Amino acid sequence: MFxxxxxxxxxxxxxxxxxxxxxxxxxxxxSLFLQIILSFFGNKRKLIASEWIRVTxxxxxxxxxxxxxxxxxxLSSQVGENATNSPDDDTRSQILALWAPFLLVHLGGPxxxxxxxxxxxxxxxxxxxxxxxxxxxIVYMLLKSWRNNWLSFLTIPMLIVGIxxxxxxxxxxxxxxxDHMRGSxxxxxxxxxxxxxxxxxxxxxxxxxxxxxxxxKVLEAPYSGSRxxxxxxxxxxxxxxxxxxxxxxxxNLTLQDWHNTRSFFLSLTWAEAFQVIENELSFMYDxxxxxxxxxxxxxxxxxxxxxxxxTISALxxxxxxxxxxxxxxxxxxxxVLLAVAVVLEMCSMVLQLYxxxxxxxxxxxxxxxxAAFRSHAIHLLRLQDGHRWSNTMGQFNILSFCLxxxxxxxxxxxxxxxxxxxxxxxxxxxNVEVRNELxxxxxxxxxxxxxxxxxxxxxxxxSSSRGLNALEKANLGxxxxxxxxxxxxxxxxxxxxxxxxxxxxxDRSPEASIKLECFRSGKSISDxxxxxxxxxxxMLSSSTRQNRFEATCVxxxxxxxxxxxxxxxxxxxxxxxxxxxxxxxxxxAASKNRGETIRHVLxxxxxxxxxxxxxxxxMERRWTLICEVWVEMLCYAAxxxxxxxxxxxxxxxxxxxxxxxxxxxxxxxxNQFELPPALIK
Length: 681
Fold this sequence. Notes:
The chain has 681 residues and is mostly helical. It has helices spanning 2-41, 51-78, 87-108, 118-122, 124-144, 150-153, 155-176, 178-183, 197-200, 208-220, 229-244, 255-265, 270-289, 292-295, 298-321, 329-353, 356-364, 370-381, 398-403, 411-416, 420-427, 436-452, 456-463, 468-473, 487-508, 510-515, 517-534, 547-566, 572-592, 601-614, 619-640, 643-650, 656-666, 677-680, and strands spanning 392-395, 430-433.
């Protein structure tokens, strides 16, 4: 018995010694691994609509700071410990001290991500305080292990890189904070003749007249062959971004902005308009969530060169002088830290060179190599096919959700963890590509209203019509009851009605319905709006409640379960037909209880379907009306969502709603312009 306990004690002691020896090695290497993940995937959440990508980046982002901080604490306890007992211990202590500046570099993070959420930018002061404390700890460790040899002097260039990285991150977060952005509205008296100020100036300390004078000359001048259509759209995007970025912090624009943007966007095709919007939102993402506010300034370029030179020089010096050292694990890890740091710096430099910010400067300078550089570099290095966002829209179908068409994995565990309801809605959420046909339909409808409006007041009325304008246009103003209630109720009524019409028309005339573009677009927008209501209600309105959604689901589940008990084996189309038939039978009973609107969303939707199907509307006209109503509802939702919510969503691969919001502002269909009272009247 004693021998067994002795063996356990010896084994435990061996494990403790092993961990003490490898603890700092594992922590530093894992911190480096997290930096690699963030460097290559930090920007992917803008382009890929995958929850796995977002979760991976989120975990890496949170873990990176924690591991670097813990590593710094462990390192501080080991540097200088028993350093004078032997030359090997002294050398190891100096190598560990060399690792400290690398941890400061890791705390600064890569260029691809400076913040995961907007709240991180608001905490810039805490980040700055952390920089001061952590730098002081590292300087203390370096002084503690200083030996006046090449290994000690090697810590200086890496310390410079670390302070540059960490300090730059704090500065960028401050630049992207809401208070700083709102307080940096440029002075209109300033001017400059060159678009290069877009790159040289701090992105949120940029003079509007600077951009206006420089870009308008470019836009009005005829383009030479060296300036492609893509180049022109990039310059257009920079011009409008310099002004419309303030909408994200709820600052209204001027009458001159309203006039300029409206006239310009009405001259574009739908493809050109959406491309400019994409570019603008891409620039906004860079400002809020990456190191762009620093690295695309002259000071940032200088710091980039200094950082690269310091890292490369440290690697070269270590390679030259390490022959005099005993090769051990610490030496190999130092090799890895230096080599990976050089590779990451070079990759960041390459990405910076072919970015849209750099390209805009090259285009303005009229370099002869611009066209060739763009065509080759972007095709070789971009993983996406020209898009600067995911180009997807979420889809959710309330009837499929209520019919429980998808199986549940580990239901008891989900219920025990109280995540069953959240995961249930996520399970029925899908993503589909935003088709060009849908963009064209939306742009044409918005442009038509922008052109036909006689004054600004009519444009504002359209943004809040919620479908009434489309109903009156079709001489169906009597259906206004379907959109005059709470917005949540209107979405539910029209979504269920759209789904019923979709299944019934698809059953009656499958070939004819599929050919209709409004048939597909109306269905897509309907599923998108109910997705926002079910999964992202904050994007609709801060006052959106989900009690009506939940009550409607309960009502639908009860109806379908009773129907399945009486007639098992019915498919979705047959269930939709039965639902409409049940409404016809119960219409008189339902009309007596119209006050209980929560319990009768299903029947109000069926009433709407009855009018749409039997109101003398041909299928094409019916679906044109449905599509127009949904576009107006989409416009209303986009207008009700705050600029900060739109900015927050940019970090989650973007939303079609945000593109609609910015497109409406460019077409003048927005209440975010400060206009004289006489003009509004």
